[in-house]
Design a protein that fits this description.
This protein is an alpha+beta fold. The strands form two sheets. Strands 2, 5, 6, 7, 8, 9, 10, 11 and 12 form a nine-stranded mixed sheet that branches. It has a three-stranded antiparallel sheet with strand order 1-4-3, with no helix packed on it. It is built from 13 helices and twelve strands. Strand 3 (169-171) and strand 4 (174-177) form a beta hairpin. It has helices at residues 2-19, 25-43, 46-56, 58-78, 85-99, 115-123, 148-162, 209-229, 242-246, 249-252, 326-339, 342-349, 373-380; strands at residues 108-110, 131-139, 169-171, 174-177, 182-189, 195-202, 264-268, 289-293, 297-302, 307-320, 364-367, 392-395. It has two domains: 2-99; 108-395, Chloramphenicol Acetyltransferase.
């Protein structure tokens, strides 16, 4: 069916060359540019892009994009017009993807290991109901307040590396295990912190505190920069509501598994004043576990002889029951509590940096689908707002 559709469209393209004869480019340039803008918005819309990706596969979809660009450039040349900047950027992005060997690896599909796991995948679709919650207390005396987030990220990375059973997520009705230990960090964006996104720290179990701080700083800078470049999207009556796209579970199931760059995320809500809390599962494109760090407070702590005041923080945990059971969640929280103990924190604080001091951390990839900056700018034209929480920067090694 896909081949038939392509053949039919190719016939229309060939017919278009006939109609291009004797056209005055100066008279129609404005019309052509307006058409190009609408055309690029259409071909980048998830309802067009994702079914093509699902039907054709990634390689064929890239071939189709290259053929589309070549045909478009040829058609413009026939009437004496140059390709717009967006076409050159898209071609450049496709070339970068061909040479990109440091992107997100291909995840391994995991077969459900129990009858319950198989049943759970059919019983629930997105984690609206099957979310488990728990919490534990951590004494943070050995942790400098300003380093709580990067140390927590490193500790989570260590747990996910040593306990790979929880390094999984679900997309559609399948369970996947990513190629590596990636930890997402919730961050606010914009001058008034009006937006939420996620910075992904790959190989978090190996990163130093300085590494993680630099990745987060660079990611926030790049996301804010991109946000300032993109024009605000004003929905119209002709625009399909975003909720209709994101809540279309059949459509979201077509998203490649690589979309979920980090199956676990960390959010530090303490600076905002929250004592304790739990994360929200965003649905089809979300993680399977989220940790929320509360406000640092002084609480009584037993020192072996008496109770003394000490800094503590409550860590809330939300977990997707379709992926892990209560036993796994309990083991995870117990292991993370140990990973935040004084000896473990000392190990994190003394780690060697893995990122050279002169490295350009502007070299990042945007998830979903390992998108580069130019692809994101094109994607934004399809009415996907910039401030989607499931979009995240992934620093490439």
């Amino acid at each position: 069916m896909f081949e038939i559709a392509l053949a039919d469209e190719e016939r229309h393209v060939e017919e278009g060359h006939v109609h291009a004869a004797d056209v005055d480019p100066e008279e129609i340039e404005d019309l052509v540019r307006d058409f190009e803008e609408k055309l690029f918005a259409l071909v980048q819309h998830p309802r067009i892009l994702l079914p093509i990706l699902e039907l054709a596969g990634e390689d064929a979809a890239r071939d189709l994009s290259r053929a589309y660009l070549a045909t478009h450039e040829q058609a413009l040349a026939e009437i004496g017009l140059e390709p717009p900047e967006a076409v050159d950027e898209m071609a450049h992005t496709l070339a970068e993807l061909e040479n990109d060997t440091d992107g997100i690896g291909t995840p391994t599909r995991i077969e459900p290991e129990t009858n319950w796991r198989q049943t759970a995948l059919h019983l629930w679709d997105t984690p609206r109901n099957p979310v488990m919650h728990g919490w534990f207390d951590v004494e943070t005396e050995p942790i400098p307040d300003e380093l709580l987030t990067p140390i927590a990220v490193a500790a989570v990375g260590r747990v996910w590396h040593e306990y790979p059973r929880v390094n999984r997520y679900t997309l559609g009705d399948e369970i996947y295990e990513p190629d590596g230990v990636n930890v997402g960090v919730r961050v606010t964006l914009g001058d008034d912190h009006e937006a939420l996104s996620t910075i992904v720290v790959p190989d978090a179990h190996e990163r130093s505190v300085t590494d993680i701080q630099r990745i987060l700083e660079a990611g926030v800078h790049e996301m804010n920069r991109l946000g300032r470049q993109l024009e605000p999207i004003d929905p119209t009556e002709e625009t399909e509501p975003l909720r209709a796209v994101l809540r279309d579970e059949e459509l979201m199931s077509m998203v490649p598994p690589e979309t979920v760059a980090a199956p676990v995320t960390v959010a530090n809500s303490g600076p905002s004043g929250m004592v304790a809390g739990f994360g929200a599962m965003p649905g089809a494109l979300g993680q399977s576990v989220e940790f929320v760090l509360g406000r640092i407070e002084q609480r009584p702590s037993w020192n072996g002889d008496r109770y003394v005041p000490a800094d503590h923080v409550t860590v809330g945990c939300s977990a997707d029951h379709r992926v892990i059971d209560g036993h796994h969640a309990g083991q995870t929280m117990d292991r993370l509590q140990t990973a935040l103990s004084e000896d473990a924190v000392d190990e994190i604080l003394t780690r060697d940096d893995t990122i050279p001091a002169d490295a350009d951390l502007g070299d990042v990839a945007l998830s979903p689908v390992g998108m580069g900056t130019q692809q994101v700018e094109l994607m934004m034209s399809c009415k996907l707002p910039f401030w989607l929480g499931w979009m995240c920067w992934l620093f490439k090694k």
